[in-house]
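Case study 2.
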Amino acid sequence: MKRAFVLLAFGGALAAPAYGDEHGDALAWLQKMAAAAQRLNYSGTFTYQSGGSSETSRITHLVDAGGEQEKLEVLDGSPREVVRSNGEVKCFLPEDKVVIVEKRGQRKAFPALLPSSVRSLGENYQIRKGDISRIAGLDSQLILLDPKDTLRYGHHLWADINSGLILKARTVNERNETVEQFVFTQLQINGPIDRETLKTKFATEGTSWRIRNAQASESLSAGGDWLFKTQLPGFKKSAGMRRQTIRGSGTDTTHFVFTDGLASISVFIEPLADQKAEKETYSVGAINVYKRAAGKHLLTVLGEVPTTTLMRLGDGMEPKKK
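Prediction:
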């Protein structure tokens, strides 16, 4: 993951101005990508691949006087829809007759993968320009983000040369193997969009559908009742909340989010009751998961980062003494 190399002092001094120009140009491309995903109208079909599995989705994104409206429809397997109106997100699961309502989470979704401000990404990633290639019929510029340590994965982003919208995104591990990939197969940018296409096709009123509100019942500005004794360089706590579980068990779950602006880690803390929990690690697609018991609580740490990163954070957690 980390590409080590040695530069002679003289050669390094000569190369520094050119590198600075290249870094600044690549950073400007990232800012263009971040703005495009929020400000442009677009609709298209993309595929998601992780391991041996793949999934096709259709996305429609509209920006007008009412703000941002978006609809994501999964076309393969179990039908699912995610409809967003500015900060409110509704996830429709027709097989379970459930609608999950929440504020837009910390996790970014393709093609809006970047934070609104990208300048801090250079602290944890080496940012550089790659080749120009053609994706979904559009010329694209490749921008590479190589991690400066072993705590995170690398990212390859291809952007439409004209608009800056991300056309393809690939996450790679330390061996440069693909962890996951998104790519548009068909895309229309700034074409006409009928607002009716942004509405869900599922009729939920007056039926047996259940609504699960995933809003936080309490915001935690600090660490709440927990100590995080191990700090992950580059990762900052961006959210802390206490909420009822989606399953409606009546128990509260504490949820913390840590991010470096691109990669995110979620920590879920829930009562263990009389159950016994062994340490375990596993993966769900591109997401790695680490679980362990801490006192009378079960900690679940997950994210699209190496498992060792999750274990480093999770093993450094303990409840505060009262």
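The domain at 216-319 is CATH 3.30.200.100 (Phosphorylase Kinase; domain 1).
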